[in-house]
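As agreed, record minuted below.
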Amino acid sequence: MPATGDGRAPDATASAGAAERSRSNRAHNGRGRATATAPIPHPRATPAAGEPARAAAEFRVLVIENDGPEHQLFESLTAELGEHTELHRVDGVREAIALLPPTPGTGRRGHRYVDFQCVLLDLGAPGELPPGNDGLDGLRELLQRAPHTAVVVLTDAAGAELGAAAVAAGAQDFLVRQDTGGPLLARALRYAVERKRADESQRRLVEAEIRGQENARLQRHLLPTPLLDGAGLAFTRRYRPGRRRALLGGDFYDAVRTGDGRVHVVIGDVCGHGPDEAALGVALRIAWRTLVFAGLTGQQLLTTLQHVLEHERRSDEIFATLCMVVLDPPAENGTGPESAQLYLAGHPAPLLLGPDAPVLLPSEQAGPALGLLPCDTTHSSWPAQRLELAPGWRLLLYTDGLVEGKVGAGSPRLGQEGLIELIADHQAAGLSRGRLVDSAIAEVEELNGGALTDDVAVLLLERNPVPVVMG
């Protein structure tokens, strides 16, 4: 039945409520979201009734005194900072370094370090500096050891230029000892901490923007424009980032038509999340397209693709699942069944959509995921599953994020059986093409109680007598 412009069949209005009624039935059968409202738990930070409020977070300051007599200024600092304040006084930068947390991977196991909010460094008088020393070596060492801690320097009256140089080197502020009283010093320390927090927030924001731009570039290469001119196919694709997607995943797809008239389609998923996995997905996708245009297919292509993965992955534990379909050229008159080959490498089998319920394509001949076993073992083979596709066929390919979403508040997952039922309900409501895919993804997310944890890539490929349609 031809679809209207919005992807809904002409009789969809009469059956628009079918999908909604079926969604309600799934909920009552244990495969939908629980409708009962669960009690809202109290936040852990909120004390229970009758329980005394917990003291505010402590403000810890590390004071690094210059060699010489103690200063009365430091004696009154604790009182000026208020209660719940800890003041740690040490002589010299070397003692301070021993108290600060080390750089990751270099500390003693099991040793607990003090978390200082601020460091007050007494630089002393410029005249006390040895020749060739600008007086900032200790400050640089502190900033290298504790880059996220606010640092305020204290100088002699003659050391204003030294204080300005310290701020240029990374300190939050400098104060002249003779002009500084206890209240001013306490206020300067707290302001320095807040400025440092603001600087750190701005730094993280800039880093997030840069990561977002990098992820967008990677995503464009993971999700390319298919090359299907003259194939007579309708091609609908969707990609949804997972819940944790500040991080980019490794889902990828591609579809090309070669000079012999065959159409090659692939969808894959690199295990894990992050730029490394996304970059590996890009490498596999580009390698797959290159190998297809070079004339490779089937076992030979997948073996070569595994070699690419083995050389490009950062760890031997990294693998990729993959589903590949190769469609033979249709008959010239456009009638009769079409033949195709299905290759599975640890990937969920596609669904064949028909007038009745969708059918899960056979997966008995599926091979292991790419990179899971060496290619020279007898198990690392990916035999072809021959398919006969009736006129008007439609194939739905997807990554496992679509079927691994939870159903309701419990632990059951949707699974392939749940997906088959869900797709059948939306087909019965008259949805097709983009509307079918979008509504199915939306219900999967609804059953999951929100965005899915993993990425989701979905392809809907269907024979269409009109020129190729991209959805």
